[in-house]
Amino acid sequence: MADDYGAQDVARCRHCATPEPEKYCDFCHVNLCKLCVGEHIGDAYDKHKIVPFQHRKSTLIYPKCETHENEACKYQCKDCDSRFVCYSCTASAQHKGHEFIELAQLSYTKKENIREDLDELEYTVFPKYEEITSNLENQIVNLDGEYERLTTDFSNQLRRQIDAVITQMEEELRQIKLKHLELLRKHLNEIKPIKESLQQTLVDLNKLGESNKVSSIIAYTSENARFREPPPTVKVTMPKFIPKQIKTTTLQRFLGELISFSVSMSNVPNSATELLDEANINFTIETGYAKLRHAIRSNKGDVWASGETGDIKCFRIDGVLAKTIKTNGNFPAGIAVDSHEALVYSDGTRSLSKVKNGQREEVCTFQGWRPTQLCITSIGDFLVSMFSDDEIQSKIVRVSGFTEKQTIQFDDDGLPLYSGNSKIKCLTENRNLDICVADSAAGAVVVVNQAGKFRFRYTGHSSSSKTKPFRPFGITTDSQGRILTADHHNNCIHILNENGQFLCYIDKIVLESPYGVCVDNDDNLYVCEYAKGNLKKIKYTQ
């Protein structure tokens, strides 16, 4: 039985516990002092291997020969699938003329490799992992404080902006008050002289009524007509503050935009998969749709598909139909499956619908806009392409929960990123969080970063074999960040790198009117053939 002791323990003899033993049994893996060696060996001298303590575990323990009992295999036969053999085996007819390697030399070489690997892992690789782990742990520890600071910063900024608006409106109200006061005083100044004249007339009439002078009474002329109709009364209503009814999302866009975290990967390894010279079709699922539009893979491995009918079908990986979900009668414009295996779809209305365990609910409704294609992001948000009710504007909206969090519609110059119409605009999120949109009407793949900033636009690759205009329909990305889009009219797939550089076509296999596309975890590509209703599984990497 081996003697286990930690770095802080003192090695002791297994028999008498004497510290710092001088010997070691390489067969039994125990520490021994000189006095206990004889006791340990006993009568089995040939069995035990006693070595100096500093050379412990240096004696090779060879495997037993299966053919020759009590002989150890000290050689490896290179002609027999590297089989271990003993000396007697090397001289047998079975191994005549074969080439042998001494296991001692092979073990020595392997030991050197092990030591080199150990040194690399211990002194080069492991410290990197420690540094990464420490950095991540520090980020987690500091996360609450960072978010508290961010919350305080934007709250203070918003308060300053709102306070400035309030101050400006208070000043406007003060100016209105001064004008109001000036108007009232002006009217008062017009009334006062007439009132004073009326008061004097009353005094005069009272005196005349008590007078007995005939001449004064006879000379009286009535002035009542002058006072009977008072001047117009000025009625000035108090100012009112009418709060403008602004949607929360609209108000949020006016006040500022909260952009989610961005992710960048350092030391990303080179692509683990290479593109095949010729892709091949591994499997075909006959979906039964006369016109097949979209397909999406779930985390469980099932494939959801939809066409131009009021249902969505779920197929197992072997192509067997597992279940069917009915819509409200309209055919789905777009489908997606979230991390909880719930099906989400749009069906021509202003709402997104979710189906989980057979229960349907509306996720959110968009006023003045109609959602079409959609995808689920790596953090569980929805990205939805949509067009306005008048079909002259298009945009991408990020939805988290039931709330619109981000709108992507214009570039930095205020120009539309996408063609303004109701044509399909399939979209997907790449591994670097770029948002890739296949704008079929514009004949372009438009890519923006997570914040919605324009990155590049791909409008096709010049090729003498592609005679029709580039019209990308479906779009997806793989584990290496490559972008794959279906060229519907030229019956092929374009593959780009994550920076928009053209890599190759998938065009040497039969694809008829490719529409929706998706990729599974093993980088198998699924392509919807629109007119035939087939869903083809394609291997394009190695």
Describe the 3D structure:
This protein is α+β, with helices and mostly antiparallel strands and 542 residues long. The chain folds into three domains: 1-59, Wheat Germ Agglutinin (Isolectin 2), domain 1 (2-Layer Sandwich), CATH 3.30.60; 110-242; 275-541, 6 Propeller (Neuraminidase). It contains six helices and 30 strands. It has helices at residues 34-41, 87-90, 103-210, 214-219, 224-228, 248-255, and strands spanning 23-25, 30-32, 50-52, 75-77, 83-85, 100-102, 275-286, 292-297, 303-307, 311-315, 321-326, 334-337, 343-346, 351-356, 359-365, 369-376, 382-388, 394-400, 403-408, 425-429, 435-439, 444-448, 454-458, 472-477, 483-487, 492-496, 502-506, 514-519, 524-529, 534-541. The strands form eight sheets. Strands 7-30-29-28 form a four-stranded antiparallel beta sheet, with no helix packed on it. Strands 8-9-10-11 form a four-stranded antiparallel beta sheet, with no helix packed on it. It is elongated, with a radius of gyration of 44 Å. The protein starts with 22 loop residues before the first strand and ends with a strand. The mean pLDDT is 89.
